[in-house]
Amino acid sequence: MAVMGPETVDVAIEDDHLGSGGVVVHHGVIRRTLSAPQAWIGVIVIALVVVWAVVGPWLAKWDATTTDVFSFGVGPSRDHWFGTNDIGQDIYAQTLVGLRKSLVIGFIAGPGATLIAGVVGAVSGYVGGVWDKVIVWFIDLMLVLPAFYILVLLSPVFKKLSWVAMVVALAILSWMVMARVVRGQTMSIKERDFVKAARFMGVPGWTIIRRHILPNVASLLIIDATLGVGAAILTESTLSYFGFGVQAPDVSLGTLLATGSASAVTRPWLFVFPAAILVVTVLATSLVGDALRDAVDPTSGANRD
Amino acid sequence: MIGFIAKRLVNYVILAVIATGLGYLIASSTLHPISKFLGRNPPVNQDAIDAALDKMGVNPEVPVLVRLKDWAVNLVTHGSLGTSTGGRPVTEEIAARASTSLRLLLIGTLLGALIGVLIGVTGAIRQYRAFDRVSTYGSFVITATPTFVIAVVLMILATNLNKLVGHQVIQFTGEYTAGLQGGFWSHLGDRAIHLLLPTIVLVLTSAATYSRYQRSAMLDVLSADYIRTARSKGRTRGSAMIRHGVRVALIPMSTFFAYSFGLMLTGASVTELVFSWHGMGEYLLSSIHNNDINAATGTILFTAVLVLIAGTLADVLYAALDPRVRV
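^ inputs. structure came back:
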């Protein structure tokens, strides 16, 4: 899918957002973001999910591996809030363990990909010339094959090492589109007077990128990191569902769904609870990301009447 | 325009070739065909192992770059992708599976893009009305749900419907009913019914993403001066929207189509797998389990060719919609 035309359909910061001080002045981005109810809902839901993942296990008396010999495969009850599986393990406890793992994976892989995108995009756009061409070509190359297929090919490595290897691979395979966007922004920021002034004063390239370029694309990066969390959780769960991601004894929402979906018709609680929590978490991150995008980019539609 | 397309096509071909080569290298380093022969009792004779591995061209004793070269030469001279661990030529396997995957992918992509564009345009024109709100939140929920969860949920619904009606109205396991008696039409109908749920899954997921981008592209266009100009020179609202609005709003979509095609492929593979279709997605997955380097690389090549075609199509669309590219 590489490739393509001159511009992507992504967020574009208008030039008049650049203040004279050299740092983009997003007049009240936070205020505008939070004025959208969807952002509020998203932030609150993410906070609740994270807090619940941390303290949830103490609220119920079962842990994820203990077998309750008096209830095999029973539905939600006062004793087992989310029911039990065929060997009497508590689904509430298992869901929380899986949720923790999925959250950790999402919160590392998403921002990790953004970090790579920021650095590569800014360097490519700032340096220009041959290096820029090489980097863009490399990005196009990495976009040819779907990341999911590469992850499947790499999965024997995850089995040997651990889920951490998968997190790293997830980040390495999902920075490309954002890097192109950052590169485009960098090329326009580079031509602005404050960057030229810094360059003519002899400020080294790395410092200019760190001090002038990255702060000016920070809003893009924040949006990307937010949306990346959800995207990473989705990819992880799909990989794990087919047995290529998180491996036993580790548990993630994906592995829970894999075992739960087999009996989704007869014992729906095995499937419904992990699925609902997965969807709610990802939905919350995308609500926040979308509200941020609307607040940063005045042309994205939501602010325009 | 021909020059523009030709230049892009050459670029795609080079990218596809290198991506396939890299795919071969990754597969060779992560998959170990020899593991099938190790740990057997009685132990397999080393010569027999070597002979079997050499026949497939996957002997780890041979440097990987030499194996890649042999594989490529074999492909160019004989049009062969090597043999699978099961003993069948990879090209034969792909030929048998490709139509299964392509049928789903083609119907899903086209319907998904069409419905997504329609929803997006309608949502933009009637911004903040009920339809816009419902479609926006609906697409949010769908994009936040993994494809396999949508598929499983639809299967549960279909099972319940079947129970309610009392017989199998919607069949969803596999691509067709095995051992079905009857003529051409009953076979066609059978396949169509099996296609129903997978297609819905694919259309839902792709229409959800397309509609969001189309809506935002359309909103950008609606406030443009040329729409007002078109209106003031006497075009009706609908005609101005379609001739000047939708056409321009589709330009960024052609780029987005090329970018999102990889996601479509992934979605199609996942859908195939959940509904137990014997397609390319299943071939890739089983190649990992079987440590089958040739099969994995064959799938990668197949994918790269699809991406190449999709990218070229997007470029043609781009050139057709945007006259600036044609000069």
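Chain B touches chain A through 68 residues (CB under 8 Å). The radius of gyration of chain B is 24 Å.
thumbs up if we can close this ticket
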